[in-house]
Amino acid sequence: MRKFLLLIPVLILIISCQGDLSIIYPEFGNNSWLINSTKLDDSVIVKLQGIYFSSNPQKRIGDSIIVKSNKNKLMIFCRQAVDFVLLDGGILDSGIVFEGYGRDLETVDVNLVRVFIRNDEGASELLNGETPKSLVLNISIETDSKSGKGQADVKYEFIRKLNTEVKFKIIAHRGGARNSDLFHASENSLEMIRFAENLGANGIEIDIRLTKDKVPVLFHDDYISKRLVEGDLLIGSIEKYTLPHLKTFCLLKNGESIPTLEEALNTVINNTNLDFVWLDIKSPAVVDAVIPIILKFNEIKKTHGRDVEFYIGISSEQVQKQLMDNPDFDKILSLSELSTEELEVSKSKYWAPQWTLGHQNPIVDELILKGVKSIVWTLDERSFIKEFIDKGQFDGMLTNFAPIVFYEYYIRN
User: What pLDDT sits at residue 107?
Assistant: First the structure.
């Protein structure tokens, strides 16, 4: 029942006056099967979670894939030219269909992807609330970004369930990914925070600076530049401007408003299932402004029944001193990037060493005995990600490429 139809071009690259590349993500348009579908319940999508295998795989996807759901989205994590696929679904008379795109995180390659589950290959049982005796995903690449041609259906069979009880922390850098990773949303934006789970993350790291009127906001760089914002209306540092001034004249790269920390934590609690937030404190002066907000949201999360923790990142001795001098120090969770000796001084619950220091298993094992966990940062290269997962003992990883970490961790568990 596959139809070879003319599809919208897969990829349009725009070269701006600054030389930046951006991706316009493709859509199926009038050729979408979802046009004639009915809504698919989230409870059905959850049952598709698992590890799947094909003995004759799509070359761009690979033989073993991991399928995960996030609310009404279906994600597929891979280990070939396509790193992950993000799909929307619906019900047809003949089965269940999903459509969306697949991304290579290290290039600008995007592919239109369709997944179809036939009634006699598990769809009927799923829709009746039953567990299928066998489950097959028919995956087709409708348009390949390299050749512009489609690739026919390939069957991927369900092998085993996804162990969602594992508590490994996959922490998405700058709220989800950097601007240079070319997603729909800007780094450190509310939109990126809402998107992070679609990348396989269960936690985020966000960068905190202080405005002239002492409001903590999300912003990475020391200075406002075209890397992070649209236009040339403002120059200099965030600290030179009040929040109303920034909200009026400073939009992020994809047009979003610079968010306050309160807006970000509200988004985490109300719009995601993220359970870990690492606040990267960009100057000691930020600490005292951030602590009351954390205390406030520690109470708010209880009223929402949310199991999420907020950690102040200690990146320097100055930040550590400012934190420890605060009268509410003992009420705040912290994560230390300093030595293990300083870690004991600050009573941090997590140690966060840089990946270039190596696996450090003896130190990590010692900390485990003391009840301290460890997160390594920042790993993006697949070979190093795999090595640190296979040989290290860390409890989590900070990364710009959460889909790669997700695949390499869960394919072995």
Answer: 87
> Which regions in the chain score pLDDT beneath 70?
1-21, 144-149, 413
pLDDT value of residue 152: 84
Provide DSSP, 107-173.
Answer: SS-EEEEEEEEEGGGTHHHHHTTPPPSS-EEEEEEEE-TTTS--EEEEEEEEEE---TT---EEEEG
Q: Quick one: pLDDT at residue 11?
A: 34
Q: In this structure, what token pair is assigned to residue 128?
A: 């009746």
Q: Would you state the pLDDT for residue 352?
A: 98
Question: Residue 145's pLDDT is what?
Answer: 63
Strands 396-399 and 169-172: parallel
Residue 395 phi/psi, 5° resolution?
A: -90, -5
pLDDT at 20: 55
Do residues 406 and 385 lie in contact, with contact meaning Cβ atoms separated by under 8 Å? Answer: no
Rounded CA-CA distance 157/140 in Å is 14
CA distance 230 to 232: 7
CB contact at 8 A, 210 and 286: yes
For 160-185, letters b (16+ CB in 10 Å) and e give: eebeeeeebbbbbbbbbbbbebbbeb
Q: How far apart are CA 282 and CA 42, in angstroms?
A: 39
Contact in structure between 73 and 88 (CB atoms under 8 Å): yes
CA nearest neighbour of 254 among 29, 76, 14: 14
Pairing of strands 110-118, 169-172: unpaired
Q: What is the pLDDT of residue 16?
A: 36
CB 97 within 8 A of CB 127: no
CA distance 246 to 8: 38
Q: Which residue do the tokens 């859509």 mark?
A: 27
- What distance in Å separates the CA atoms of residue 287 and residue 328, rounded to the nearest whole number? 11
CA–CA gap between residue 102 and residue 111 (Å, rounded): 5
For residue 315, what are the CA distances in angstroms to 112, 113, 283, 375?
A: 41, 42, 9, 14
* Type of residue found at 234: L
Burial (CB count within 10 angstroms: exposed 0-12, middle 13-18, buried 19+), residue 39: exposed
Question: Which residues are CB-contacts of 379 (< 8 A; sequence separation ≥ 6)?
Answer: 355, 385, 388, 397, 398, 399, 405
Check: CB of residue 176 under 8 Å from CB of residue 187. yes
